[in-house]
Specification:
The protein has about 350 residues and is an alpha/beta fold. It has helices at about 5-45, 60-80, 95-115, 150-160, 165-170, 175-180, 200-210, 220-230, 270-280, 305-315, 320-325, 325-335, and strands at about 190-195, 215-220, 240, 255-260, 285-295, 335-345, 345-355. A 7-stranded mixed β-sheet has the order 3-2-1-4-5-7-6, sandwiched between helices. The longest helix has about 40 residues, at about 5-45. The two termini are about 35 Å apart. Bound molecules: S-adenosylmethionine. S-adenosylmethionine (SAM) binds near residues 135, 171, 197, 219 and 224.
């Protein structure tokens, strides 16, 4: 147990890093909601009907209380030595301001797509056949889908605004079940695969905890991997590959751990099953799978309405099916034993071990 002075210093350092960050992304969210309310008022009767749910929706005070609990847990994990004091690496001031500019200047385009329910702009003669059809959509109504450098540069700020600044703290909860299986082992002798690694945010936190752990990041987007390369350039012992979750170019039983964050809610049911089969194939016996994704119905009953509203406001064609998917049963079909689920604000960490 740390002495009171170093404990105090850790808490001050944690607050000094996280509070301004929270204020930055919460502020972006407030401005965004005002802009979109003003746009809806301007559009008046021509606007599409408002999203609707009969299920319970948490109010702001409940959301903020649950977010505070997440950050307390994040700090407790640091104090318990599960991972070091996190550095979020959002970038220098010029990068932050540039990302903010990219975010705000794109809002009218996102709004136009949402109002017109246009979500197939990235499916074109240039892209058709180069990626599966389900992938060639403007998920979240975002410009460029998963395909362009600008989309990759906007992604992190978009996600943090959506999660009120808590996305990285949610991601870090995936390190807890990794710590359980890595503790006391030589990290250089282990192998971890992060599937759908996007811009590499989870890999950065994994590297902060285990700098010499060999990590492969896999994603179908060249542009997102370019952004991940930029973001991860301070680290060695990693490799980023363009590939599909449902056809992983790695040998059977080669990985000690596999992580997958915010991907499964974006996969069609059939692809979810193929991906789980691939995860089971590449994991060693005893290997650990950590799936981190959205809450599902019933995980936090007071959030069920918010979950139902999400795909009405963002293009998320497979989210409704995700909300009722029985992951422990699906995983069991492939020899992956369910260990536990742990809710993390609007996210959920699902832990499995390969038998
Ligand atoms: C919502 S983002 C999540 C990114 C990242 N894991 C994070 O923590 O933010 C989904 C990512 O999965 C990738 N993706 C979607 N379908 C995929 C598939 N079938 N195989 C590999 N990557 C996929 C996208 O290119 C995108 O980078």
């Amino acid at each position: 147990m740390a002495d009171p002075i170093s404990r105090f210093a850790t808490r001050v350092a944690y607050g000094a890093r996280q509070l301004p960050r929270l204020a930055w992304y919460l502020g972006h969210g407030m401005v965004m909601r005002r802009l979109s309310a003003a746009e809806r008022r301007r559009a008046g009767a021509s606007a599409r009907p408002a999203a609707h749910t009969d299920r319970p929706v948490p109010d702001r005070s409940r959301l903020y209380a649950d977010m505070a609990a997440l950050f307390q847990r994040d700090l407790a994990n640091v104090e318990a030595g599960i991972y070091p004091l996190p550095a979020d690496h959002d970038g220098s001031w010029p990068i932050l301001l540039e990302r903010s500019r990219l975010f705000f200047t794109d809002l009218p385009e996102v709004h136009r797509r949402r109002e017109g329910r246009r979500h197939r702009e990235v499916f074109s003669p240039a892209t058709r056949g180069r990626r599966p059809g389900y992938y060639l959509q403007n998920f979240h109504f975002q410009s460029g889908g998963w395909l362009t450098p600008e989309s990759a540069q906007r992604y992190d700020i978009q996600v943090e605004v959506l999660f009120n600044g808590s996305a990285n703290a949610i991601r870090r909860q995936a390190l807890v079940p990794l710590h359980e299986v890595f503790a006391g082992r030589d990290q250089r002798q282990l192998k971890l695969l992060d599937v759908g690694c996007g811009t590499g945010r989870l890999i950065d936190f994994i590297k902060q905890a285990w700098p010499r752990l060999p990590v492969v990041g896999l994603d179908m987007s060249d542009s997102y991997l370019t952004e991940a390369r930029r973001h991860l350039r301070r680290w060695g012992w990693h490799n980023l590959v363009v590939a599909k979750a449902e056809a992983i170019p790695l040998p059977d039983a080669s990985q000690d751990a596999l992580t997958c964050v915010f991907l499964f809610h974006e996969l069609p049911p059939k692809v979810r099953r193929q991906a789980l089969a691939e995860f089971a194939r590449v994991l060693k016996p005893g290997g650990r799978l950590v799936l981190l994704d959205s809450l599902q119905y019933g995980d936090e009953p007071d959030y069920d309405g918010m979950l139902e509203l999400f795909p009405q406001n963002f293009h998320e064609p497979y989210y409704a099916g995700y909300l009722t998917e029985d992951f422990p049963a699906l995983a069991a079909e492939h020899g992956l034993a369910h260990v536990r689920d742990v809710n993390a604000f609007t996210g959920k960490v699902m832990v499995f071990d390969k038998r």
